[in-house]
Amino acid sequence: MKRFFEVVSKDPQRASSSSEPDSESTEGINESPEKNKECEKSKKQNYEQKYVKYWESEFKWLSEGTKGCHYAFCKVCSVDVYIGKMGKSAIKSHANTQIHTKNAGTISLNLVQQNIEPLFSLASKTAVIDAEIMMAVFVAEHNLAFQIMGHLPQFVNKITPDSNIAKKVKCSRTKMVNILRNVLGISYIEEIVDLLSANKFSLIIDESTDISLVKTLCLVVRVCKNFKVHDLFFDLIEVESADASSLFSAVINSFTKNNIMYKQNMIGFAADGANIMMGRNHSVSTLLKADINDLFVLKCVCHSFHLSASYACEKLPGEVEDLARNIFNYLKSSSKRLKDFSSLQYFFEFKANKILHPSQTRWLSLSAVVSRLIEQYDVLIAYFSIAVKEENLQTAKNILTSLKDPITKLYLLFLEFALPFFIKLNKLFQSESSQIHKLHSSVKEIVVTLLECFVRKDYITMFLDSTSEFNLPPECLLDLESIYLADNIQEIDSEYRTLINFVKDKEQILDIEEFWRMVARIEIGNEQAFPNLVKLVFAILSFPHSSANVERVFSQVNLMKTKIRKRLENATIKASLQTKGLLELQNSDCTNFKVTTEMRKKCNKAMYDIPK
């Protein structure tokens, strides 16, 4: 190579001639670079990557570039990324950069906060609504004055300063009353209406006058829910007149207002023995029977027992009852007399029990009074012997004369023996559990026990023998065509026969409702084994056996509407009773009451606009 350069440098002509090619070759050399550039340019245009829309499914932060189709826009970094050469790889490279990673982390945290904060806010709002509803339940359950709501929310906030919920609770007296009426009350009625529309039920009613002389009619329904029989408050209606037609109209209007098809599902009716309720010619029961031919009507068993005891006691001398009242009235009017009587009890080593007051209307309450008089009989004679000498009052002399009469104590001993039979029956049928199946056997047992006191046993046995022949003339019997049997009577009979064989070896000491709940849970082939029989039995258990459940409602009303709260409106009293009904349906109290979603939806500004 060195020798070659030396030769060239020594021959300048050759060098110049070699450096100046001919025109043809020069033109050929000049044309080829331009053509090559055009070819390279066309090749580059063919392979330049454009933006692809479906990349956004993989890269959520990606969108179409603002500078053209060969760019992709990063929403995290707010920059355009050139993708013409590297395509999707350019996007991945950008995603791995430190700046993008940092920006993406910050935005993700902000998004999480934005999504979570509304959830926390909603949860807090729900908790506040629940707190306000449960406060209303607390006040209603314990019959508290509504004015405590002026201080209760602030008091709770004061003793729980770290609670954000307590700070947000705003529940005044007005708001609480509207929650009772238009949230809890309406929720209860909706549930009761659903129950009565889907199940057979009985109606128990009674009328009373409260402390403000307002006459009200109370309606209680006896219905089965989840194979358990409940006595549930239904309505409390103000009535101007307490005649049969007015009470009947009030009952029907209450059912109609709540869209209850009572003619189809109402199977039983019970009330006390008053003429307006149970009269033979014109009463609430006769009017209901005219509407529902197959209605089962029962006078309150407890009232019947009371009347039986009252009629029997009319045969006793009036001095016995007068003695009980006179002794109580003599002692109660003076603290000195009570102290002296207590000293004598201590001296004679008797229990320091007070003398009881006999009720003006309940003869059955006389049993406890009689037992107390017999228990303290010797102390009473000693006390009134001293009182006659010291005070010389005619009342004390009359009491002492009666106490020393042996016939008086004889009558008291007779009452102590006889009255407990009626007390036992009365307590049994005041029970909230189903007792209709015990009505006949329990009454029969008491009747036989009393008859055995003065009637020969062979006569009693003959009288009670169910196998004895009844000589009934043909005209006393119904035609076969007139005898109605239910459509599914054969199905019920077959289920009953199967059940006898199924449970004959099982333990037979269960409560009646518990037993039939067990039967209802029996399945054959993933289906209820005895559906018709269970339905029949729980319909029978829904029959009433007394009106004690209505009297319990009136007792609750008396606890609410007192002398200092006698202006309480009927609608508010009814709402409080409905709230207590919700507690019974949930089998709960104010501490574990379950607030439903529907209740929360009702607790809004619209509840103030609902008419009473």
UniProtKB/TrEMBL annotation:
Molecular function per GO: protein dimerization activity
Region (Disordered): 1-41
Superkingdom of the organism of origin: Eukaryota
SUPFAM superfamilies: Ribonuclease H-like (SSF53098)
Spans traversing the lipid bilayer: none
Biased composition (Basic and acidic residues): 1-13, 32-41
Coiled-coil region list: none
Record-annotated HAT C-terminal dimerisation domain positions: 499-577
Protein name listed in UniProt: HAT C-terminal dimerisation domain-containing protein
